[in-house]
Sequence to fold (124 residues):
Amino acid sequence: MARLFLLLSAFAGFTGVALGAFAAHGLKSRLTPEYLTVFQTGTHYQLIHALALFGVALLALHTPGRLVNLAGGFFALGILLFSGSLYLLTLSGIGKLGIVTPFGGLAFLAGWLCLGLAAWKSLT
Fold:
């Protein structure tokens, strides 16, 4: 699983930087300031959780376990649902896509909870 999480981390980091640059240079004149902020929120959370996936990959090498794997899976799912829905919302203008975003946020929270539980379990 460590290799998968490392690959997902690299992919999320690469695409997060690329999408951030795309927003700053290519979308600045095409999106409203509000939608540009929403898009940037997506890239912000994507990049934070790309680093979280990197940490999970390292942790999976040294302390593998179900909770560590769940954390990585939830972080990846969160990127897809949270950031992905924000990107689609801003680029398509379909407001109903915002319904998906909170599920991504819940996935992020579940990932952090699993990571915390894994840390707690490893210390006891």
Q: What stands out?
A: The radius of gyration is 15 Å. The chain has one domain: 2-123. The chain is about 85% helix and 0% strand. Residues 33-62 form the longest helix (30 residues).
